[in-house]
Write a structure and sequence with these properties.
The protein is mostly helical. The chain has one domain. Helix 2 crosses helix 3 and helix 4 packs across helix 5.
Length: 111
């Protein structure tokens, strides 16, 4: 359950903010990303507030225990690197998994 608990906010943040590669290298949002977020918030303000609350809570947890937060970041980076290597080794399986995750996220967003 803990992996799912960590996975869902990460997936939501990724979907919410778009590609991290497109973001400013200093962690700021691009104008396009900001416009996309504002459009989503206009469509569903309640969901937007929930996401903002979760992000605020996560920031508070990291402020309270920076070491745990850094450890979690390092773990996520290692997992991302492992995924990149697995995708390079077997792109077809990676595409299948990506499509399955996108489908689950769609079901989560539109119950």
């Amino acid at each position: 359950m803990k992996k799912v608990t960590l996975l869902i906010p990460c997936l939501l943040a990724g979907l919410w903010m778009g590609s991290a590669a497109a973001a400013d290298p200093h962690g700021k949002l691009t104008d396009e990303q900001r416009a996309r977020i504002e459009a989503r918030c206009a469509e569903n303000p309640e969901r937007c507030e929930k996401v903002k609350d979760r992000l605020t809570e996560a920031k508070a947890r990291c402020d309270a225990n920076p070491a745990a937060c850094e450890a979690r970041k390092d773990e996520m980076k290692a997992r991302a690197e492992a995924r990149r290597e697995a995708c390079a080794a077997d792109p077809a399986a990676c595409a299948e998994q990506r499509d399955a995750v996108r489908e689950r996220v769609k079901q989560y967003q539109n119950p």
